[in-house]
Design a protein that fits this description.
- The structure holds two protein chains of two kinds.
- By secondary structure, chain A is of the alpha/beta class.
- Chain A is built from 23 helices and 20 strands.
- In chain A, strand 19, helix 23 and strand 20 (551-556) form a beta-alpha-beta unit.
- Chain B is of the alpha+beta class.
- The chains are: A alpha/beta, B alpha+beta.
- Chain A binds chain B through residues 1-2, 6-8, 10, 137-138, 141-142, 145-147, 149, 166, 198-201, 322-324, 326-328, and chain B through 12-17, 20-21, 24, 28, 45, 61-62, 65-66, 68-69, 71-74, 172-173, 176.
């Protein structure tokens, strides 16, 4: 690799005095310096010196032994998203590192700060197709914010210090530091300085007050302004400023799936969720607003549907930290580049107090229609068959919206995101951008460890659960108080729904002939229960939530239920179907 | 929007792997890189990428933002054809005997503003710099004499104005110091 020195770093924190130690010991000391108390991983040959060093620091760093590296990284992601801290993940070279890739890609697209440390074969063996050698730098490059290969101990401090800084600053993301085994063994004079600046990197663009003024004017003059907000509000710690802004301007606001919980669900200006399975009004009225204010969201295609039919009538204001998101999918008439918190503070100062009662009423009318056509039946079904929605409704009643809801991917994810109530930020942890099945269970483990004082419920489908089901053993060994809720429809439900609607009900490879999940949970020594009748549901959920520790609850739900509303792919947002 | 010729320029740190990071941006969008040149720049310790593509301006704008987003990229930008002074360098190897059968080759070389780089017993090497169409024209004229080897470099280009993108980088680095 090139020299690290080429990138000058100005360091403001005081350096610690030099001390002669091994590279592996330095790695662990750096984790401590960066405030890491929990790491997720899986050992193997090329990372063994680091595990050996961890052995000496067990009281300070809890290492969570996953059962697959994918589990380790999803747990690190869940930890990061629940705690707001950087998630740390360790893996060995070759297969250990390649098993991380799905989670790294997930963290990249959902802007999750994760530092992955991978062991690598000795520098002298690089390029020789040595045992368990893979080009981790090459493989991870398309899915990392930054990566770096360390081949000597002396490079470790600066590489890791940059890794933490890059992962957590600006728009967060995953980084990989690949460390050859010789570098872990070598002794060197260890000194550590935290990175606070890299000359080629601008994590937060400078706010242009002219743009803020323009935006404020457009907002003041708008008749039907409409806010779309995403995870940027959460990542920018701007929940309070966001609320102040919408309350002053009285603008109806819809969240993206990643923006869930940035505002309380029941806030009168919260009109619901955007997206393919979002709410009716938020989708439909996108094409009726006159000013569209996007805050910390990136106009994903699942949010916009067909771009040719998306908000063509609206003037678009885009508050965003990442310049590459401006004009990427939806052209911005007024781009406001900057940190969400600062931008919102300045914007709030300039806008006039306002209310948009009539316009807001349009959202309420749409909601009434959706209640009638979809929600009523989903939350209180008129049949004997249990619905996913009623399970979520009872959870809401029991937790009062206080829980962290983690989900896997599929119908249960859409139902959980549509109906879960949130009262606190960082309470929705889901694989939004990548849609990674297998995310839910390990992410729930990480979330429970990252937010130990909160109730963490991981809602999974029978398909996704079986992608990372071995992590039940991690629960048994590590004892996070995660509650695993299996909504079992004995189908790859979301794919089956598409087959029903768009492929003439040809259910090709979507029916699941499943194992006995009860026996499985018992085998992993996790308290478990199964509900097949409505009359047992409430009591079972109550016990599930109140139990002091991890718990596995399986609810048999309708095999062929569908999630509505739906914007069929290729359609415009206004073509949203209620049935 | 119509596709046209663009030159993308990026000022970067000199780090191993950055070339790969940058080309990935093109691969991901299935954009063909016509040529790519890396070299030093006017600033010490700052590297420069020059990338030639034929694309829509909208796509080029997006690509440039993705390039600039990389941690180790100081600044990236793009130029249209008219906004740069550009050159490519071509080398042609032909048998020496084609020179001994009359003055035809020498005339062609002169007319094309090319020159002989070396004349050996068995072969000569001709050098020509210019636009692709110019080096191509020379190629076509030399072909009947038998071309043993031909190579053309990537496009290099500087902005057709006193202060290009590099000026911004200089200011950035001054502010650092
Ligand atoms: C790793 C991965 N493979 C395939 C898919 C495609 N996919 C999306 S949803 C889905 C079905 C999920 O089924 P299940 O986990 O049972 O949840 P349900 O939809 O029934 O709630 C599939 C296969 C995916 N998102 N991720």
């Amino acid at each position: 690799m090139g020299t690290l020195e080429a990138t000058e770093t100005k360091n403001k924190t005081a350096p610690s005095a030099p001390e002669r130690i091994k590279g592996s010991e330095a790695i662990v000391r750096i984790l401590l310096e960066e405030g890491v108390d929990t790491a997720f991983g899986y050992p193997g040959g090329a990372i063994m010196p680091v595990y050996d060093a961890l052995y000496d620091h067990q009281e300070k760093i809890k290492h969570v032994l996953a059962r697959h590296e994918q589990g380790a990284i999803h747990a690190a992601q869940g930890y990061a998203r629940a705690s707001g801290k950087v998630g740390v993940c360790l893996a060995t070279s070759g297969p250990g590192a390649t098993n991380l890739i799905t989670g790294i890609a997930d963290a990249q697209i959902d802007s999750t700060p994760v530092v992955c440390i991978t062991g690598q074969v000795a520098a002298s063996l690089l390029g020789s197709d040595a045992f368990q050698e893979t080009d981790v730098i090459g493989i991870s490059m398309p899915v990392t914010k930054w990566n770096y290969q360390v081949t000597s101990a002396a490079e470790i401090p600066e590489a890791l210090s940059k890794a933490f800084y890059i992962a957590r600053s600006g728009r967060p993301g995953p980084v990989v530091v690949d460390i050859t085994k010789n570098a872990q063994f070598e002794e060197f004079d260890f000194e550590y300085k935290k990175t606070t600046h890299i000359r080629s990197y601008v994590p937060v663009p400078k706010l242009d007050m002219e743009k803020v003024k323009e935006a404020a004017e457009a907002i003041d003059n708008a008749k039907r302004p409409y806010i779309l907000f995403g995870q940027g509000v959460i990542l920018g710690n701007a929940e309070k400023e966001f609320k102040t802004f919408i309350e002053k301007t009285g603008i109806p606001s819809a969240w993206t799936i990643m923006g869930l919980s940035a505002l309380e669900t029941d806030h009168p200006l919260n009109v619901g969720m955007l997206g393919m399975h979002g709410n009716y009004g938020p989708n439909l009225l996108t094409n009726e607003c006159d000013v569209l204010i996007a805050i910390g969201m990136r106009f994903d295609d699942r949010v916009t549907g067909n771009l040719d039919k998306y908000a063509k009538q609206a003037k678009v204001i885009h508050l965003e930290i990442d310049p590459a998101e401006i004009d990427k999918n939806v052209p911005a008439d007024i781009p406001v580049l900057g940190d969400a918190k600062e931008s919102l503070i300045e914007l709030t100062k300039l806008v006039k107090p306002n209310s948009h009662e009539e316009w807001l009423q349009r959202f309420r009318d749409c909601d009434a229609m959706e209640q009638e056509k979809v929600i009523k039946e989903e939350l209180n079904p008129n049949t004997e068959i249990l619905s996913m929605g009623e399970v979520v409704r009872i959870i809401n009643e029991k937790t009062q919206g206080d829980a962290i809801i983690v989900t896997d991917v599929g119908q249960h994810q859409m139902v959980a995101c549509r109906y879960s109530k949130f009262t606190k930020s960082k309470s929705n942890i889901t694989s939004g951008g990548l849609g990674t099945m297998g995310f839910g269970l390990p992410a729930g483990i990480g979330a429970a460890l990252g937010a130990p004082d909160r109730t963490v419920i991981s809602i999974v489908g029978d398909g996704g659960l079986q992608m990372t089901i071995q992590e039940l053993a991690t629960i048994y060994q590590t004892k996070p108080k995660v509650k695993v809720l299996l909504l079992n429809n004995e189908f790859l439900g979301m794919v089956r729904q598409w087959q029903q609607l768009f492929f003439d009900k040809r259910y090709s490879s979507t029916e699941m002939i499943n194992p006995d999940f009860q026996t499985l949970a018992k085998g992993f020594y996790i308290p478990t229960n199964k509900v097949t009748e409505r009359e047992n549901l409430e009591a079972a959920i109550e016990e599930f939530i109140d139990y002091d520790g991890a718990y596995f609850l399986e609810v048999m739900v309708g095999k062929e239920n569908n999630v509505f509303p739906m914007v069929p792919s290729g359609s415009g947002v206004a073509e949203i179907r209620l049935e | 929007m119509e596709k046209q010729e663009f030159t993308i320029t990026a000022y970067t740190e000199n780090h191993v792997g950055l070339l790969h990071r940058i080309t990935i941006i093109f691969t991901k969008r299935k954009i063909n890189i016509e040529s790519l040149t890396t070299s030093e720049s006017e600033m010490e310790g700052v590297h420069r990428f020059t990338i030639a593509v034929t694309e829509t301006e909208e796509q080029v704008q997006k690509v440039v933002k993705q390039i600039e987003k990389h941690v180790e990229v100081l600044k990236a930008g793009y130029y249209k054809k008219k906004e740069v002074v550009q050159q490519e360098l071509a080398l042609y190897k032909i048998p020496t005997e084609s020179l001994t059968n009359g003055l035809e080759v020498e005339r062609i070389v002169r007319e094309h503003n090319a020159r002989f780089l070396t004349i050996e017993r068995d072969f000569v090497v001709i050098e020509k710099s210019g636009y692709k169409r110019e080096t191509k024209a020379l190629f076509d004229e030399l072909r009947p004499f038998g071309i043993n080897e031909f190579v053309r470099s990537g496009r290099i280009a500087v902005a057709r104005q006193q202060h290009g993108l590099g000026h911004d980088v200089e200011e950035m680095l001054m502010a650092e110091a």
